[in-house]
Design a protein that fits this description.
Length: 560
């Protein structure tokens, strides 16, 4: 049976939700699609099938060719497969194009060099640390959710800002941010990106579990051409190579053993290789007089998170370095931690007594924190921010600081400063200018600068226009009932007549064996076809209900 006819029957069996989801996923034009026949033909146009398959990425196509049942179900959802008598069947032209796209896509599996595998493990550790950093940044300083044609995303400007603050390549931070969104580790909380419950669980997971989540996203997003490049020897400066190196799949431009496993879609093997490449977690750190904290090996997730809350991570790897500063301690205090809690946290992690310079720094942070206070106020129905301080000299300095001119700070009657900007904007401007600022509630009590908000896992609602199109197509199909297949056959034969081209059909007349003929249509009516038999050069008149079109391509499709 012709693929369009098979897909047409499958589309008719769908409900409105499933058909609307198909319209969105395959980017079906909302205008010009007047029937399920139009939709089936549009979905199976060869160039469109090629482009949409390529958009799925290497992993999904690899699984589809391998016969993975879940991949077949997803293929049916996307209009690449239909429900047949023996289960879900990928349409023939789709299968052919999948094979052509993939070619020989399997890397040669072999054991890796010990040094290369160790470096891969170090890179994997650094990657999971970077992902935790990006998540923590989104939690501490939320950024707006951007919405475009491809859905919600973290904006490019925000990515560049995060990359600069972490001193990491923009391309790598962009990839990690995309993985966080794809894995639903972050979501939309009132228009800003915040960690989801799954994201908070990710921060509490060990290195291997985190790496597996990120590697799944990396493989899901790997294009066919990128996969081929990595298997056959990537260019060292390509973005695909940069990201693959960060995952641990490449070292020195060559796939590692875990990379070959991952590029064969065997993440179970790759995960075990990562586990073997990582050293055991350490019990403590060395806090130095120069205010650095050295972790000579991977820390447990809770210890790492505890240090990040009060110190800045300077280097990532099997041995990581953190640095204490007034600014980092102020960040911890502003998050709701008390100084006694910070001291105890550092003492419990340190393998040696706290050096005197560190003790002095802690005392200084406790003394200066909150010397500047900001609070939301409403005056004459207008919301703004009040800035106060117990140190009049410090308040005077704020008023003349040229870096704070955008805040438009004005002296109030009570000696405080006022700004028409929101309290969050004023607070973060003062933090950036390195003032010892704290945020107050309406009663004058210090409160966390950023309230802990957990986003719900993102969903992809079907747009109303797509749902309306699906509803109209199903209504039209119900009206035509069983005439759709005949209508489609008439359309194809009429196209062939106009193009003066031939079609192959199977003719099944009661009492005779089915025959395959190559016919050039001469006229097409509601019930009959008059055509010239190209083999015998005779004219035949045949009932439409005895014909089955065998050619998948529309007559004239190859002509342009």
């Amino acid at each position: 049976m012709n693929s369009v006819v098979r897909l047409l029957g499958d589309l008719r069996a769908r409900d409105e939700d499933a058909l609307a989801a198909l319209v969105v996923e395959r980017r079906v034009p909302l205008r010009g699609t007047g029937s399920l026949i139009d939709l089936a033909e549009w979905l199976l146009e060869p160039r469109r099938v090629h482009d949409d398959l390529e958009r799925l990425g290497w992993r999904e196509l690899h699984r589809l060719r391998s016969g993975d049942p879940q991949a077949r179900l997803r293929a049916r959802r996307r209009g690449f497969a239909v429900l047949g008598p023996h289960g879900v069947e990928v349409l023939p032209d789709v299968s052919r194009q999948v094979s052509e796209l993939l070619g020989d896509d399997q890397p040669h599996r072999q054991d890796g060099d010990g040094e290369h595998e160790a470096r891969a493990g170090e890179r994997a550790l650094a990657l999971t640390s970077l992902a935790a950093d990006v998540l923590a940044r989104l939690d501490a300083a939320p950024i707006p959710v951007r919405t475009g044609r491809s859905g919600t995303r973290i904006g490019g400007t925000d990515i560049r800002r995060i990359a600069a603050s972490l001193d990491e390549p923009h391309e790598l931070v962009a990839a990690v941010a995309g993985w966080l969104v794809g894995a639903r580790l972050v979501g939309d909380a009132d228009g800003t990106w915040r960690p989801t419950e799954r994201g908070r669980d990710f921060l509490a997971d060990g290195t291997v579990a985190r790496w597996r989540v990120l590697a799944e996203q990396w493989l899901d997003g790997l294009g066919v051409a990128e996969h081929r490049e990595l298997v056959n020897g990537p260019r060292g400066d390509s973005e695909a190579a940069l990201v693959a190196e960060s995952v641990g799949a490449l070292t020195g431009g060559e796939p590692t053993a875990l990379g070959r496993a991952a590029l064969s879609d065997d993440l179970d093997d790759a995960t075990e290789r990562i586990r073997a490449a990582l050293p055991d977690e350490i019990e403590g750190v060395y806090i130095q007089p120069d205010l650095t904290i050295i972790a000579p090996g991977p820390l447990p997730a809770d210890a790492d998170a505890g240090l990040r809350a009060v110190a800045d991570l300077e280097t990532r790897g099997l041995a990581s370095t953190y640095r204490l500063s007034l600014a980092s301690l102020a960040r911890g205090l502003s998050s709701g931690l008390g100084m006694d809690e910070i001291r105890e946290r550092l003492r419990s992690l340190s393998l040696t007594p706290l050096p005197q310079p560190v003790a002095y720094l802690l005392d200084e942070a406790a003394r200066t924190h909150g010397l500047v206070r900001v609070r939301r106020v409403v005056e004459d129905g207008v919301s703004g921010t009040r800035v106060s301080s117990s140190d009049p000299t410090l308040l005077d300095r704020l008023g003349v600081d040229q870096d704070l001119r955008p805040l438009d700070l004005r002296r109030g009657a009570s000696g405080t400063l006022h700004s028409i900007l929101p309290v969050d904007s004023v607070y973060w401007a003062l933090v950036e200018a390195r003032y010892p600022v704290a945020m107050e509630d309406d009663a004058g009590r210090e409160r966390p600068a950023v309230e802990r908000v957990t986003a719900t896992a993102p969903t992809l609602p079907v747009p109303t226009p797509a749902r309306e199109l699906a509803r109209a197509l199903l209504a039209d199909s119900a009206r035509l009932a069983d005439d759709e297949a005949t209508t489609w056959l008439q359309r194809r034969l009429e196209l062939a007549r106009r193009a003066r081209s031939s079609v192959r059909v199977r003719v099944s007349v009661r009492g005779d064996e089915p025959r395959v003929l190559e016919l050039r249509p001469l006229s097409v009516t509601a019930h009959r076809l008059r055509a010239r038999d190209e083999a015998s050069d005779v004219e035949r008149t045949l009932p439409l209900d005895a014909l089955e079109l065998l050619d998948d391509a529309a007559p004239g499709d190859g002509e342009a």
